Amino acid sequence: VRDCIQKTLTEWSSKIGQEQNQETLEVLECTVAQAIEKINPEERDELKVSAKLFIVGSNSSSIRDAVHLACSALGVAQLDSVIIAPPPVEDGTNLSLEYLQPYWKELENLVQNKKIVAIGTSDLDKTLLEQLYLWAQVKPSSNQVNLASCCVMPPDLTAFAKECDIQLLTHNDPKELLCEASFQEVLQESIQNVKANKWIPLWLLRYSVIVKSRGIIKSKGYIIQAKRNAS
């Protein structure tokens, strides 16, 4: 992720020129157009567009922004599936249903507005997954389990997932895919005259476009949003 961000920022910075770098801009849209392949509408039915969303700052409205930006970047009306990684909780606090609810409600709104077809979770144990399933209007279609935390799927989780038709998937993403310090370091290295310590990452979305009939990845990439603190 760090390498992708650094390469994009460096290439973008070299293209916009020195003068614009020195301006104090409210919004920086750092895009390398040729790096993103928009989906041909004629091929859309043959492709599955899936995403995993990592919330860095604890703000549920980030979900809506992330999905809209992903759809816009890829030239599609909706994403086929979105999995959300558990948003960060304060030290000493356990992940709970109450904490997850505002994020899930945002996902449900996007399903109801036809921006997402299916929604899923990541790293929920059987108890929390069951609580979410019973509470949610739009049920989770999948739950990712980290390979680092278990070599074998927990039997209680497997049994519950089978009973409720929830697909269990595996992943090996680190707990923190991109920390604030790492992002600021890349920013400082890539763009001249930017006050990197003022910029805070909000969310990171990883997308993949898969050819359904052949099961191969046609394209993949990351989209990230950060904000600059005024202070």
Automatic annotation (TrEMBL):
Q: Which segments constitute the NADP-dependent oxidoreductase domain?
A: 31-169
User: Which pathway does it take part in?
Assistant: Sulfur metabolism; glutathione biosynthesis; glutathione from L-cysteine and L-glutamate: step 1/2
List the keywords (alphabetical): Acetylation, Glutathione biosynthesis, Ligase
The GO terms this record gives for MF are:
enzyme regulator activity; glutamate-cysteine ligase catalytic subunit binding; ligase activity
Gene Ontology biological process terms from the UniProt entry: glutathione biosynthetic process; response to oxidative stress
The cellular component terms of Gene Ontology attached to this UniProt record, alphabetical and capped at eight, are:
glutamate-cysteine ligase complex
Q: Short name of one Pfam family for this protein?
A: Aldo_ket_red
Subunit description: Heterodimer of a catalytic heavy chain and a regulatory light chain.
Stated family: Belongs to the aldo/keto reductase family. Glutamate--cysteine ligase light chain subfamily.
List the protein's name: Glutamate--cysteine ligase regulatory subunit
UniProt lists the gene as Gclm
